[in-house]
Amino acid sequence: MSREVSVESTGETVGEAKWKALRDLERMAPGIDKANVRFQIVSEGERGLLGVGYTPARVIAAADAPDEPEPPPSDVDLSEVATRVHSLVEQVVRAIGAGSRVDVRETDEEIAVACVGGDAALLIGKHGQTIDALQYVANAAVHRRGVGKSVTVDVAGYRERRRTTLEGIAMRAAERAATGERVLLEPMTAVERKVVHERLQDVDGVQTESEGTEPNRYVVILPA
Asked: Which residue in 74, 131, 137, 224 has the fewest CB atoms around it within 10 Å?
């Protein structure tokens, strides 16, 4: 069953506010059908006297997010460190009030954490910052114990959908860069920048660099 996600955005015009809302919706639930996004105009905005100051336009955008994939049940025979990761993520989920179920699967190379149900947007955070921060902390906890496994934290299948979106953005930007244009992408987290770098590392005619400072660091795609 699909779930509804919504965001509220502002801009100098209604059109700009709608554009920002669409971009935020895609971050929350990559793969949404943009044609079925529903907009509610809260305020059309108003410019101040003699062009000084203004009241921004404000809109609410809502859409049905793609169905969440149901992960397989957690492995009951988790190692001690995987059990600790499970406990850590559960504590964070409870602390922020997301109400998600936490499932953990473990292989020889990876500890995969899936948060299912509840408030996915709250766990993902703006630009994926919350989920990335949680994944960073979980990895730090594992490496501190000297365990050579990576930890991946996912929420409602966000990682794979976002990866698909980022790879599409990267390839379209690479096509522009191959004609001689220097293309700057929007600011991304370190995890998302890595996806772009990896997708384009074997693409002929272009190269990638990261510029700027956190939290506004971004990828630049330029002719090789």
From this structure: 224
Query: Which residue range is the domain that position 108 belongs to?
Result: 80-156
- pLDDT tens sequence across 157-212: 888 888 888 999 999 999 999 999 999 999 888 888 999 999 999 999 999 999 99
Give the separation between CA 53 and CA 15, rounded to whole angstroms. 19
How many of the other CB atoms lie within 10 Å of CB of 49?
6
For residue 210, with 0-12 CB atoms within 10 Å meaning exposed, 13-18 middle and 19 or more buried, which class applies? middle
- The CATH number that applies at residue 205 is 3.30.1370.50
Q: Is residue 74 a part of any domain in this protein?
A: no
Q: Is 207 exposed, middle or buried (0-12, 13-18, 19+ CB in 10 A)?
A: middle
For the residues 78-98, what does the mean pLDDT come to? 92
User: What count of Cα atoms within 13 Å lies in the side-chain half-sphere of residue 217?
Assistant: 13
Calculate the dihedral angle through the C-alpha atoms of 125, 128, 131, 136, rounding to the nearest 10 degrees.
-130
CB atoms within 10 A of CB 32: 20
Closest listed residue to residue 106, CA positions, set 149, 158, 160, 137: 149
Both 85 and 60 in a single domain?
Answer: no
